[in-house]
Design a protein that fits this description.
By secondary structure, the protein is mostly helical. The chain contains eleven helices and two strands, in the order αααααββαααααα.
Length: 362
C-alpha cells in the first residue's frame, strides 16, 4: 500500500489534467476532423443556404446524446430511456470496466493466497533444521516470483525463466535484462514457454511439492495441508481468469459498428445545428464529439487492464509492495531462527511475557 498511497496524491485538480492519465491524446485527431468538417458545413451553408436539417431532427439528435450520457450513469430515471439507446456506449464502457474490476479482484485473490501460504510456511517452520529452513526460504521466494511471473505473462513477457533475471524481447528476439525477479527463481530452472507452459503454473509445482513434503515430515497436519492446497488451487484459478480477460477481446463486429455509428453521428450533427447556431455549431459539435470519443477511448483503454499505462491496474506498485511485505516477514523469520527468538518478539520481551503468564497462573 505504501507506493499506491503516494501514487494517488494528485498535484493538479482532475479537471485541469490534460496529459497524465487523460484520454485527450488518443481522441484529439477524430475530434479535430469532426470540427473541421463542421466548419466546412457552416461555411458552405453560409454561401449556398439550405443545408440544414429540420428542427425536429435537432431534438432527436440531442435526445440521443443525452440518452447515451445518462445510460452510463446509475441514475433512478435510467429505466425511462429507450432500450435501443443502451446498445452503443454503455455495453462498451460497462464491459470494459467489468474487465478492469474483475482483473483487480483476481489479482487480489493471488496476493491473498501468496500471503496465506507465506504465513503458514514460515509459522510452521520456525524450529526446523537448517536445511529445511533453506528449503522454506526458497519456496517463499518462489511465491514472490509467482507474482512477477503473473505480471510478465499478462504483459506477454515470455521467456523470463530461461536465464534468471532475463526476458526475451518479442520484437527483437534478444534477451532483455530484468532485475526484478532474477534472485527469486530456483537455480537450474528451465522454461517451457515454447511448448505452451507458462511460468506461473510451472512455479506452482514447487509449492505443491513443498506442501507434500511438509505433510510427509509432519510439519503440517492433514486439515492444514488441505487448506494450503485450497489456497494454491485458488491462486491458479485466479491466474486462469486473468488470462481469460487478457486473451478475450471485445467482439470485433461490435467495435466496427460502434466506430462507424459514432463517425456517422458526428458527420450528421453539423447539418442539424447549422440553421439555428451558424458558426456556433463548430464548438458545439467539437464538445459533443469530445464527450463521445472520450467515453469510447476510456472503454478502449480499460479493455486490457494489465498493461503499464497510467489507467491500467498498478501491477508494478502492487507487486513491489507485496514483495516488500513478504521480505520483511522472511527477514524476521530468519532473525528469530538464528537468535532463538519468537517471530516479531525479542528475547527480553519473550521472557517477560512468559514470566507474566506464569505469575497470572500462580
Amino acid at each position: 500500500m505504501f507506493r499506491l498511497h503516494f501514487d494517488h496524491h494528485y498535484r493538479w485538480p482532475l479537471a485541469l489534467r490534460f496529459i497524465k492519465g487523460a484520454i485527450h491524446g488518443a481522441i484529439v485527431l477524430p475530434v479535430a476532423l469532426h470540427a473541421a468538417f463542421a466548419g466546412l458545413v457552416v461555411a458552405f451553408d453560409h454561401q449556398v443556404r439550405g443545408l440544414g436539417l429540420p428542427a425536429s431532427i435537432v431534438r432527436i439528435i440531442l435526445s440521443i446524446v443525452v440518452g447515451l450520457m445518462l445510460v452510463s450513469q446509475p441514475f433512478p430515471h435510467r429505466k425511462s430511456i429507450p432500450p435501443w439507446l443502451t446498445t452503443c456506449k454503455v455495453f462498451r464502457n460497462q464491459t470494459s470496466y467489468n474487465r478492469f474490476w474483475d482483473g483487480r479482484n483476481y489479482l487480489t485473490v493471488i496476493i491473498t493466497s501468496v500471503r496465506n501460504l507465506t504465513r503458514s510456511f514460515l509459522a510452521n517452520s520456525h524450529r526446523h533444521a537448517l536445511a529445511d529452513r533453506h528449503e522454506t526460504e526458497r519456496i517463499v521466494r518462489v511465491l514472490i516470483a509467482i507474482l512477477y511471473a503473473t505480471k510478465q505473462h499478462l504483459r506477454a513477457g515470455w521467456g523470463a525463466e530461461i536465464i534468471p533475471g532475463n526476458s526475451i524481447n518479442t520484437s527483437t528476439g534478444n534477451a532483455d535484462l530484468i532485475n526484478e525477479n532474477g534472485d527469486l527463481l530456483p537455480r537450474g530452472l528451465y522454461g517451457c514457454d515454447e511448448r505452451g507452459l507458462g511460468l506461473v503454473l510451472q512455479l506452482t509445482f514447487f509449492v505443491e511439492q513443498y506442501i507434500k513434503k511438509g505433510f510427509d515430515k509432519g510439519w503440517f497436519h492433514a486439515p492444514q495441508a488441505s487448506q494450503m492446497q485450497v489456497q494454491l488451487n485458488g491462486l491458479v484459478d485466479a491466474y486462469g481468469r486473468m488470462e481469460t480477460i487478457r486473451l478475450t477481446p471485445i467482439p470485433i463486429a461490435h467495435l466496427i459498428h460502434q466506430k462507424q455509428v459514432l463517425a456517422l453521428f458526428g458527420c450528421v450533427l453539423p447539418f442539424a445545428l447549422v440553421n439555428q447556431m451558424a458558426y456556433w455549431a463548430v464548438p458545439v459539435v467539437s464538445l459533443v464529439m469530445f464527450t463521445l470519443y472520450g467515453i469510447d477511448g476510456i472503454g478502449s483503454q480499460l479493455e486490457d487492464p494489465f498493461g503499464d499505462d497510467r489507467n491500467d491496474i498498478k501491477m508494478d506498485y502492487i507487486v513491489e509492495d507485496i514483495r516488500s511485505e513478504i521480505s520483511v516477514l522472511l527477514e524476521e523469520w530468519k532473525r528469530a531462527g538464528e537468535q532463538g527468538y519468537d517471530i516479531f518478539v525479542g528475547k527480553r520481551q519473550a521472557s517477560q511475557s512468559v514470566s507474566n503468564r506464569d505469575a497470572g497462573h500462580g
